[in-house]
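Our preliminary data section would be incomplete without showing what the modeling component actually yields. Below, a chain of 149 amino acids is followed by its predicted structure, encoded as tokens that our downstream tools consume directly.
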Amino acid sequence: FDVVFSYGVIEHFTNPAEIVGIFDKFLNEGGLMITLVPNFTGLNAKMTKLFMPEVYNIHRQITKEQLASYHVSNNLTVLKNGYAGIFSFGVMPLIKSDHWLLRKNTFRRKIFLGAFNLADKVFSNLFKLLPFDMPSRFFSPYVICIAKK
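Predicted structure:
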């Protein structure tokens, strides 16, 4: 293939570099590999750990440096590596949470999810007003690496 896209896969394995190597086998010479993993070092991770520890615990924390190294170790040339996106409550599957604040069929769940949705809209609109991009380890929900074979 000319492009291989991985979204939320490699962080579930003990050796993510090995998984990148498997994906590399499907890539044509000169092709691009785009790898996106959740940023489990920032604000979304802290909230996921608090509200959904079962989700948090099935993910490896992968920094942007580690993600790049997985590609480099498979002889890929990193073209872009960093944090992607702006903070969003929508990234976390809160509706699946068993946290006491989010127990099904409760009024507090309705209020809590409504407050998160409202906060998400407010944050999104505020971030759009900024005169610069704000991807960062703390605020971005994803880590991305784009590499060439």
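The first helix runs from residue 16 to 24. DSSP finds five helices and four strands in the chain. Preliminary results of this kind motivate Aim 1 of the renewal.
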